[in-house]
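cron nightly-structures :: item 1 of 1
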Amino acid sequence: MPLPTGSSWCYRHPMATDPRAALDRLFAAFEEHLDAVETLQDDEAPVVLATSDALAEAFENYDESLYEEYGVDTPLVVYDGDEEDEDFEFDDLDDDALEEDTVADDSRAGRRDGPGPGGQRRSG
């Protein structure tokens, strides 16, 4: 499989204002990244790193153009490799919302929460 050419993976597209054009660029960035990964199979190779950066930029451009045009965000965030993500921590999850989800899942499965005879939790 041929490597992406220098002009394709190094070229930075201007910010897209049309979500459809930004999506087309995002698909192209995914394909270039996959080509580089399949060929080199080395996550530290300069071409793989460059196509990773181009993919992240293409996604951010798509996300921004989608928001500007329709006021809608994608449900994704670009991971920048920093293990300490300041935007999201598991500690930030709403415990009440998680508990409500668990209760709803249990009720759909026919389980009843709460103490059973002898104060033991019921399950199933």
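cron nightly-structures :: done
Confidence is low (pLDDT under 50) at residues 5-13.
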